[in-house]
Design brief:
The chain is α+β, with helices and mostly antiparallel strands. 21% of the residues lie in helices and 33% in strands. A hairpin with a 2-residue loop joins β12 and β13. The radius of gyration is 25 Å and the shape is elongated. Bound molecules: adenosine-5'-triphosphate (ATP) and magnesium ion (MG).
Length: 417
């Protein structure tokens, strides 16, 4: 959900030199020029900070972005998530003005910004290699953007640097040099340097991928905290589904230069629509079934010899194919021959199965089972009675109705707009 928090640290600071006389008004945008002050009026919250419209880009005649459409509301934290090479960094570099799109428009605060140079777009940027200036102190690194813009006297700069170091929890490190800091600390300084100019939009390209796993988790929480505190509109690029799920208001899942699904993390996870999105944002058993019967909003499905009665998806047809996903944590394992409990009406099916593997993970156990012609894996929490299933043991897979995710929905219109 887009946040409309006010910026706690947004003093009436001067900010970067404001664009722009070159900027052209987006058709029908009715938005103020980029050099107008920020507005806290309700319509400002509804106005997108960034709008990419039908943006395409090819390298050596190879299309990398294909009619990409994306909007980010003020205060929103949006993540572009996708596999390596799907065009995430290309998209971000186009927003930053480091690359020009072949076709399409990039609007910043309602103004077409295709011809604006990067330094006039009022952006903050943090990239994978955080590239602090090695010969400059932490304070000079952070104050760099303000100095370049010629804003603020010495006292103001010192105060702003102090505020930023407090924000990223590195107080007192002003005189240190980057080489004296750990990777995580350097990344915090890079963040402070990007935020000090109070950008309209913060661009983050895999900013945590150079950090070890523990630090990455810590920085995820830190980034989210900073976003909540400042309310700065943020566009993050990552190929880590965990990062995207933890931090974002919305996630845009990219594949082959297009956005395949865009929604809140919970909606993308619960209703991914395509098998690609489903398995990219989490783990799943993806199965192809035959629709044997449809009635009263329910479908009788057959997956080989296994049957299932699940809520029908609008695009399923009797006699046709249905592709479904079952997330491992939404399935349960039960003793062979056990009867459904009181909540049986909520069961889509129960399949006789055989445990083929068991992986103990401390807080959970993953079971691999064969049922009919299918291999299913599910995640079970330790049972209060300490019961565990052994390899080779007969068991039942319990499929709750709510666990059946219908995939291969017909294409959405205009993702992101
Ligand atoms: N300057 C360039 N010249 C030629 N090809 C490029 C250039 N930049 C990117 N590409 C190609 O465009 C495609 C998309 O690249 P991009 O860097 O946007 O991917 P990405 O989604 O950010 O991937 P990663 O997760 O690996 O960073 C890739 O196939 C890449 O090789
Ligand atoms: Mg990239």
């Amino acid at each position: 959900m887009p946040s409309t928090k006010t910026a706690a640290l947004r003093s009436p600071l001067t900010g970067l030199a404001r664009p722009d006389t070159q900027a052209r008004q987006a058709p029908g945008a009715g938005a103020p020029a980029l050099n107008e002050p920020r507005s806290s009026a309700p319509e400002a919250a509804a106005r997108p900070i960034l709008r990419m419209h039908n943006v395409s880009k090819s390298f050596q005649a190879l299309p990398v972005l294909k009619d990409l459409n994306l909007q980010i509301a003020e205060g929103e934290f949006l993540t572009l998530l996708g596999p390596s090479g799907c065009g995430k960094s290309t998209s971000l570099n186009i927003v930053a003005g480091l690359l020009a799109p072949d076709t399409g428009t990039v609007c910043l605060r309602g103004i077409i910004a295709n011809d604006l140079p990067p330094q006039r777009r009022r952006l903050g940027m943090v990239f994978q290699s955080w590239a602090l200036f090695p010969h400059m102190s932490v304070a000079d690194n952070i104050a760099y953007g303000l100095r370049m813009a010629g804003t603020g006297d010495k006292t103001t700069l010192r105060r702003r640097v102090g505020e930023m170091l407090d924000l990223v929890r590195l107080p007192g490190t002003e005189t240190k040099f980057p080489s004296q800091l750990s990777g995580g600390m350097q990344q915090r300084v890079a963040l402070a340097r990007a935020l000090v100019t109070e950008p309209d939009l913060l661009l983050l390209d895999e900013p945590l991928s150079n950090l070890d796993a523990a630090l990455r988790k810590e920085m995820q929480v830190e980034l989210k905290r900073i976003h909540e505190r400042l309310g700065v509109t943020t566009l993050l690029v990552t190929h880590s589904q965990e990062e995207a799920l933890v931090m974002s208001d919305r996630i845009a899942v990219m594949r082959g230069g297009r956005i395949e699904r865009i929604d809140t993390p919970m909606n993308v996870y619960a209703d991914p629509r395509t098998s690609f999105v489903c398995t990219f944002v989490g783990d799943a058993n993806v199965l192809t079934a035959r629709v044997e019967a449809l009635s009263a909003g329910e479908a009788k499905l057959a997956i080989g010899p296994l049957s299932l009665v699940a809520p029908a998806a609008p695009w399923w047809r009797e006699g046709g194919e249905a592709v479904i996903a079952l997330r491992p944590e939404s399935l349960a394992i039960a003793a062979a021959g056990s009867q459904p409990g009181g909540a049986d009406a909520a069961e889509a099916g129960r399949w006789s199965a055989k445990v083929t593997d068991r992986i103990f993970k401390g807080s959970s156990i993953t079971y691999e089972l064969s049922a009919g012609d299918a291999q299913i894996h599910l995640l079970a929490l330790p049972q209060p009675d300490g019961r565990v299933f052994r390899r080779g043991e007969a068991a039942e897979i319990v499929v709750p109705k709510a666990s059946v995710i219908a995939l291969n929905a017909p294409e959405e219109t205009e993702a992101g707009t």
